[in-house]
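Quick one, tokens below:
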């Protein structure tokens, strides 16, 4: 175990992250794939694709990234450091940083909020391949623990026609 791995383990203990003891393999010995929250109603008829993920402004994620940023990486943008750390911790290599629209405002006070939010994405409705490319249940459970809650479906910041601009493969 390297010093970096040891410090990640220590950070997980400080954030009270528990090892997952639920069964994460099938009868054939393969890892179970993660089960996602249900998609919003009429998601196919929307003008934008949906992206499943967690908000980058998560307090626990910020603490974890701040604790484990080596001095020579301080100049690297927060989103890049967070993505790399989450990939190292969870073993999930299919994480993406995406811009999404904020939730639809429910009252007039929220009407003033405009712009986009940045999320750590694990799934996209843009194609069947991107939707079914999922982390294992164990990886998903660890990400849920790190963020302190389930991911939610967000509307993409760009209309469907422009989804190819992301270069997600």
């Amino acid at each position: 175990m390297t010093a970096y791995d040891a410090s990640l383990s220590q950070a997980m203990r400080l954030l009270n992250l528990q090892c997952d003891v639920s069964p994460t393999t099938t009868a054939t010995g393969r890892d179970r794939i993660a089960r996602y929250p249900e998609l919003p109603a009429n998601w196919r008829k929307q003008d934008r694709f949906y992206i499943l993920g967690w908000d980058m402004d998560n307090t626990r994620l910020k603490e974890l990234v701040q604790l484990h940023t080596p001095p020579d990486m301080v100049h690297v943008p927060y989103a890049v450091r967070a993505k790399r750390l989450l990939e190292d911790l969870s073993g999930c290599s299919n994480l993406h940083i995406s811009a999404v629209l904020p939730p639809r405002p429910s009252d007039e006070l929220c009407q003033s909020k405009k712009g986009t939010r940045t999320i750590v994405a694990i799934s996209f409705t843009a194609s069947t391949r991107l939707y079914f490319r999922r982390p294992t249940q164990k990886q998903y459970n660890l990400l849920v623990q790190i963020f302190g809650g389930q991911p939610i479906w967000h509307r993409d910041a760009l209309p469907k026609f422009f989804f190819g601009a992301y270069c997600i493969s």
